[in-house]
């Protein structure tokens, strides 16, 4: 199933994908075992003349072991998933690594407003520049995104970067990513935000270093 | 027990009075729990059909976006233009599809119909503790349904903010373009909340107070345990939704700002309140379904249920946990992964334990049984199988890091439909076909039901399993046209496949509907206990008269004594006093 994911181009995407695979193998195994057992029982214990069902209540320890042992295994697997999951989650949504690039994304019905800080690297100064639906970033750099919304809840979704974060009115939420491959990637909105929700999308443009410098100098000619 | 018997005599007295009442009193404003159960069943079936038709319209639009939907030319602008769907109407459709399915189809059938019909019969009493309240509960649900359906016809159309109705979208009319539709949605759910409260108080009181002599808690049939816990969940969870929704109504109409940041409110407050209700709600829907499966499996395996007490303890554990895991719906709302987030994650994943235990015990019930694949059994097995599949999908979403890419995609839609649509519908089919003889004194056609069971099982998987792939591929839920996105183009053949499967699934349901109504009028008449089952309802006549039992049964044993070595026959009804042993025979 992992093959159905869009191409991963983020530094942390691999951890998410491998956690997905781990859960896929665990649940896949559980699926085959349980559904297989079900099918087996249906065939093996189908009604036949002259055979009576066993009179078992499953409450004696010897009998209950048949369900308790699998239960213990489930619990152990649960904790394994918890352990791996907490690590990955903290990496994506916990402490944000030091970043050189910062942008502010303000969602509104039905566009993404992207605000670039300009050469001074600070938002809210005169050299800020705003674009609609185009997020330009350099490859292999940590990008910090401050998410806001002007009206309803939207969700900033970068399928190729395995990043999704809601944008809430009245709050500013920080997210980050580091893209590892140049290209144009879609930036859809993932939270129902009104009749224009479907089709609300922007583009993430990941530039190779030299191209990024050129893009910068085009927009902020010094 | 003296209190309880006093209540029993009292309700018995009211019944005798009703004996010679008019048609209006027996069929419309009946206080008889069996009639009320049937009324809920019919209400649910009608709404199920409406909700299903909406689902098909949604599916059509997703497979062949913006083409004419067959048979919808009559729907006027601005909803549809010459059979082509408007995006705003699409949002209204999935919102109403979900609301109708959850609140007006599945809950009325699983809880309203089976709860009402089964509880007094299976615990061995003559009616509910509060028969009039019971009648009011149904007649409160009806206006709620009418208001919900009427909301399609007000200017601006029906609610379109999703069944989760997140503000500010749902709180400010200009954001969604929906005005009174959303208000009516809230009002309808508030009315329905009153109906559910009356029902659940009644169920809880009846089960606690009115059990037949000898019916200890651990002699209760499992479906009654499941309904009992469901009623408690309803009682604790639903008022939270109702209050949250009324605050939403105030934001919309009175200028308050509970959820609006401009006025100092907090949109996340709604999410907390909604999901504090919402997660238990999932169990409110799923538990009765599991209870029905647990009830039917032993009967057709001719074997005692495996680990009765473990199932009950697991049921209680899972239900308690359901109140403290709502955060898993908010992993990408901005939750801090450090402490609070970890707690939600661990608890959420831990829920797999009690549910695994239930599934394993049900599975073990089949082990060394003597399984007869009658139609109700096929449905019950389908319920169990779908429950396992649906539950496993939840592990992905419960893990926050994996939820980041999957949240709000079709992975979620596929996952919850396996439970919401798969498990519940199969349990409904199982329950209806199993108790049909008791409800109507006639039996359904087995062959048609078997064909229907297999067809539904296959097409249901074909509809909901590929949705997981769409979700992994990144397809967002609640989008009107997937072809608007470059990265979704290659997934379109899956969407077309799902829609074809859904169409076949829809047509397959005609089999059941025809079988149901045909059997109602012309099915073969049945005896009291056609399945040779142990529980008390089978000792009453089919259909049971007013007051149910010839004499109140006295319970001697648990409900699942099948194939006991003590007896010559392979079942031992709960109230059978003298067991004929092999040596006597
Ligand atoms: C069996 C046939 C069914 C089919 C083919 C079907 C199909 C669909 C589709 C296509 C959506 C839209 C998803 C989206 O746009 O995001 C949807 C949404 C939904 N359905 Fe169903 N459905 C079925 C039955 C049910 C049942 C029985 C229930 C509930 C008990 C249910 C509950 C929901 C819910 C809660 C939503 C979410 C709506 C929202 O996003 O607000 N469905 N369904
Ligand atoms: Cu949106
Ligand atoms: Cu939940």
How does this structure look, described?
- The complex is a heterodimer of chains A (222) and B (585).
- By secondary structure, chain A is an alpha+beta fold.
- Chain A is built from three helices and ten strands.
- A five-stranded mixed beta sheet of chain A has the order 3-2-1-5-8, with no helix packed on it. A three-stranded mixed beta sheet of chain A has the order 4-10-9. In chain A, strands 6-7 form a two-stranded antiparallel sheet.
- The longest helix of chain A is centred in the middle third of the chain and has 33 residues, at 61-93.
- Chain A is elongated and about 95 Å long.
- The model of chain A has no long low-confidence stretch (mean pLDDT 94).
- Chain B is built from 17 helices and four strands.
- Chain B has helices at 2-18, 23-28, 33-63, 87-123, 131-150, 173-176, 180-209, 222-253, 267-301, 308-321, 340-350, 352-366, 375-398, 400-406, 410-440, 446-472, 492-522, and strands spanning 80-81, 84-85, 442-443, 524-525.
- Chain B is globular and about 75 Å long.
- In chain B, 64% of the residues lie in helices and 1% in strands.
- Chain B has one domain (2-539): Cytochrome C Oxidase, Chain A, CATH 1.20.210.
- Chains A and B meet through helix 1, helix 2, strand 7 and strand 9 of A and helix 4, helix 9, helix 10, helix 11 and helix 12 of B.
- The complex binds protoporphyrin IX containing FE (HEM) and copper (II) ion (2 copies).
- Residues 52, 55, 58-59, 94-95, 97-98, 101-102, 106, 162-164, 413, 417, 420-421, 424-425, 463, 477-478, 502 of chain B line the site of protoporphyrin IX containing FE.
- Protoporphyrin IX containing FE binds at residues 52, 55, 58-59, 94-95, 97-98, 101-102, 106, 162-164, 413, 417, 420-421, 424-425, 463, 477-478, 502 of chain B.
């Amino acid at each position: 199933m992992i093959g159905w994911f869009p191409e991963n181009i983020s530094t942390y995407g691999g951890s998410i994908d491998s956690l997905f695979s781990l859960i896929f193998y665990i649940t896949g195994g559980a699926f085959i075992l349980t559904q297989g057992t079900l099918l087996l029982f249906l065939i093996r214990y189908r009604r036949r003349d002259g055979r009576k069902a066993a009179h078992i209540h499953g409450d004696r320890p010897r009998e209950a072991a048949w369900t308790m042992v699998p239960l213990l295994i489930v619990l152990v697997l649960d904790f394994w998933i918890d352990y791996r999951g907490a690590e990955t989650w903290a990496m994506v949504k916990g402490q944000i690594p030091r970043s050189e690039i910062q942008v502010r994304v303000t969602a509104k019905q039905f566009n993404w407003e992207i605000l670039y800080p300009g050469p001074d690297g600070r938002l809210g100064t005169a050299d800020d520049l705003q674009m609609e639906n185009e997020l330009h970033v350099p490859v292999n750099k940590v990008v910090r995104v401050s998410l806001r919304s002007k009206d309803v809840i939207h969700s900033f979704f970068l399928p190729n970067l395995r990043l999704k974060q809601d944008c809430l009115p009245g709050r500013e939420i920080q997210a980050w990513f580091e893209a590892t491959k140049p290209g144009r990637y879609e930036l859809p909105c993932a939270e129902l935000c009104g009749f224009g929700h479907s089709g609300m999308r922007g583009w993430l443009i990941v530039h190779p270093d030299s191209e990024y410098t050129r893009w910068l100098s085009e927009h902020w000619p010094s | 027990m003296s209190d309880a018997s006093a209540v029993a005599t009292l309700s018995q007295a009211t019944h005798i009075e009703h004996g010679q009442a008019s048609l209006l009193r027996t069929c419309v404003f009946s206080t008889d729990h069996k009639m009320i159960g049937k009324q809920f069943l019919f209400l649910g079936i009608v709404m199920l059909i409406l909700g299903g038709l909406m689902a098909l319209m949604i599916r059509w639009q997703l497979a062949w976006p913006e083409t004419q939907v067959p048979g919808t030319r009559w729907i006027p602008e601005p909803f549809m233009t010459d059979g082509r769907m408007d995006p705003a109407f699409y949002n209204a459709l999935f919102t109403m599809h979900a609301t109708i399915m959850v609140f007006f189809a599945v809950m009325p059938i699983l809880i309203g119909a089976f709860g009402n019909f089964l509880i007094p019969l299976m615990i061995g009493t003559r009616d509910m503790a509060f028969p009039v309240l019971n009648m009011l509960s149904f007649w409160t649900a009806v206006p709620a349904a009418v208001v919900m359906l009427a909301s399609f016809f007000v200017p601006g159309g029906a609610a379109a903010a999703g069944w989760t109705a997140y503000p500010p979208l749902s709180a400010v009319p200009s954001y969604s373009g929906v005005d009174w539709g959303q208000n009516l949605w809230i009002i309808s759910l508030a009315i329905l909340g009153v109906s559910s409260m009356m029902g659940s108080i009644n169920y809880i009181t009846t089960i606690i107070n009115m059990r037949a002599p000898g019916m200890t808690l651990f002699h209760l049939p499992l479906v009654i345990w499941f309904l009992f816990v469901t009623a408690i969940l309803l009682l604790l969870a639903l008022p939270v939704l109702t209050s949250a929704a009324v605050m939403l109504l105030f934001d919309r109409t009175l200028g308050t700002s509970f959820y609006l940041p401009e006025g100092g409110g907090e949109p996340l407050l709604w999410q907390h309140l909604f999901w504090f209700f919402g997660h238990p709600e999932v169990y409110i829907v799923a538990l009765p379904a599991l209870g029905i499966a647990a009830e039917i499996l032993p009967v057709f395996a001719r074997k005692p249920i495996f680990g009765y007490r473990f199932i009950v303890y697991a049921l209680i554990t899972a239900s308690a946990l359901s109140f403290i895991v709502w955060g898993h719906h908010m992993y990408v709302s901005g939750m801090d992964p450090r402490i609070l987030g970890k707690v939600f994650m661990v608890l959420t994943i831990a829920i797999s334990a009690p549910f695994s235990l239930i599934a394993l015990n049900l599975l073990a019930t089949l082990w060394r049984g003597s399984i007869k694949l009658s139609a109700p059994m096929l449905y019950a097995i389908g319920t169990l199988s779908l429950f396992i599949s649906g539950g496993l999908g939840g592990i992905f979403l419960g893990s926050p890091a994996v939820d980041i890419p999957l949240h709000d995609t079709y992975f979620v839609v596929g996952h919850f439909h396996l439970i919401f649509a798969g498990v519940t519908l199969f349990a409904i089919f199982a329950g209806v076909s199993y108790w049909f003889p008791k409800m109507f004194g006639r039996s359904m056609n087995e062959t048609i039901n078997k064909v229907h069971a297999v067809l539904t099982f296959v097409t249901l998987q074909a509809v909901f399993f590929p949705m997981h792939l769409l979700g992994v591929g990144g397809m967002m839920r609640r989008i009107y046209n997937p072809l608007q996105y470059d990265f979704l183009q290659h997934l379109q053949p899956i969407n077309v496949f799902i829609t074809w499967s859904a169409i076949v699934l829809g047509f397959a349901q005609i089999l059941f509907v025809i079988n149901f109504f045909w059997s109602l009028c012309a099915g073969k008449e049945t005896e009291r206990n056609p399945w040779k089952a142990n529980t008390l309802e089978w000792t009453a006549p089919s259909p049971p008269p007013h007051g149910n039992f010839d004499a109140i049964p006295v319970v001697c044993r648990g409900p699942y004594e099948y194939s006991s070595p003590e007896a010559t026959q392979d079942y031992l009804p709960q109230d059978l006093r003298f067991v004929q042993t092999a040596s006597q025979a």
